Input
Amino acid sequence: MAMKRIVSPLKRGQVSQDAPIGATPLTTGGRAERASGGERHVWPRVTAPLLGLIALILLPSLFDLLFGDSADFQLHRVTLILILAIAALAQNLLTGYAAQPSLGNAAFFGVSAYLLAWLNSDLQQPYWLAVLVALLACALLGLIVGGPALSVSGAHLAIATLGLVVLTGSLLTLWDTSAGRQSYELTALPEALGDDRVLYYLVLALTALVFFCAFHLLRSRIGRAWIALRDSEVAAAACGVALTRYKLLAFVVSAVLTGLAGVLYATWGTTATASMSSVDQTIAFLTMIVVGGAGSLSGSLLGALFVGLVPLLLGELPDPLTLGPLQLPIATLTTGIYGVLLLLALIFFPGGLSSVFSRGGRLVQGEGGKP
Amino acid sequence: MSAERQTAPQEGRQCRTLLEVQGLTVRFGGLVAVADLDLRVEEGEIFALVGPNGAGKTTVLNCISGFVRPSSGSIRLAGQDLLALGAERRAALGIGRTFQNGQLFSSMTVLENLLVGRHSRLRAGLFQSLLPIGPARREEAAARQRAREILTWLGLESYADRLVATLPAGLQKLIGVARALAGEPRLLLLDEPAAGVPLREVAALADQLRRWKAELGLTLLLIEHNMEVVQAVAQRICVLNYGRKLAEGEPATVLREPAVLEAYLGREEEIDAREEWEVSDHAAG
Output
């Protein structure tokens, strides 16, 4: 290379090959040998969730052995945890990956349940059609609400979306009151879903499918864009990520998944209540991802397990619980415990349970590998 | 290697202007950060923007990549007006950049950082991305392949699957460049590539800059404090002071102009000042 320019006399001699940063010639793109599949650590990533899935498929038989006659009742409780896992995943995609501190998911949780109840019980529409319409409505609502909500950020977004939850809860209560009912009973559910075992397998299949798709989505162009805007918004934009579009996409995907959890929850309890869109519900969602692990698929499962078990354990207590002069409704106690768990998790293991389990492991992508 | 010389701007007007900045003015409140700046970066050259701290260099770079909206003026890439476009559209048009402080995606691996860098070259949508089959999968495999090639070319292939956060700062700097290159830009904006690079590696860095330009057909616009790097690689430089253009031209000539020496190096003798400056820079870095 001709050095026409004046190189500083100080260190001219060192412009040479002993560069510590590499100097291999470029083999221009396209004609290079094909990548050998890409990932090297495929097997642990595949086997762990596969073993978990097989265990969950065999769970009903195991419960038969363990609990005998009450097996179906116990299975019913496990089903709830799987439903919560979908809701946790929804919150995690939005908050743990795309870094949007939205508290609005409980709104979609309630709306989809009420839509299902209305379409299926009152309008006598087929169950699956009602579910589909409820999910589409969540997508549309997410699109409409997400645009303005995401134009503010941080604490403003959290407060605005919490407002959405409170507003939705009030509207649903108003609907209940004007229709003269306590809650919206699902009276026309398909017969088969009344069977705890069928419901369990349906929910298991849907949860597995949702996590499978989320796993791949997070390793795609779209999931990477979400994680990128979490790590550095300016760099993401400089790489060509349309920030607003991808935040909105995360919002809508999260809304639809929460809607799915909502219709399953209503199916599971054969009722839709206005408390599904409440601050308490929001706290439950938040607790799941903070305790389980934000930005982790396995964390979503662990969080759901944890949060699902608390009311089960508290269900053994009398309601309201009498402590001396105090009379505590169990629902209040549950939310109180979630609050304490949130605090403890934030203080002692900010990475959530999943980070405790995978010590020293990869922070996001690797950990997400074992849902 | 000799081909690059023929495209050097001083050899005639027939070479194409890639980036054209006209009358660029940026005000932050009452402060004028950049005042009526004109710049022309020709296709295939290495252009350096130099000047003391606070001269407005990074602001100019931010205007070009779309993070700062200028108060007035125009910015064109190959004739296309950029000001109406967001940062992500400009990236898609072929403007890549690095950041002074890296701004890497720290929770990702090196390879994943490059894949994000390639974002605007990929097309996969939401529904295609849900399952490990179909066209999105093939596109992804090709993108990974290309990212690995870029890493190999930069000598970083052994770090491909390492988490960025675990790597030393000097290496992160290079990964920032690799990420920008993964988008296959026409114009690469480098914000202080030599800052934080150990003194003994600076010469190698200059070598690298020339190599990228020559082998990838890039146009480089860099901000640099290190005069050694600037003199070794830049075909033309523009000196900014308080947001105004002080001088422009070949580095050897420009850096001898009294106004430049005074603004940038102080009143001392040129070489002394330069040495002193470099020492203090590396002490600070």
Notes: Residues 293 and 355 of chain A are 7 Å apart (CA to CA). Chain A has 13 helices and four strands.
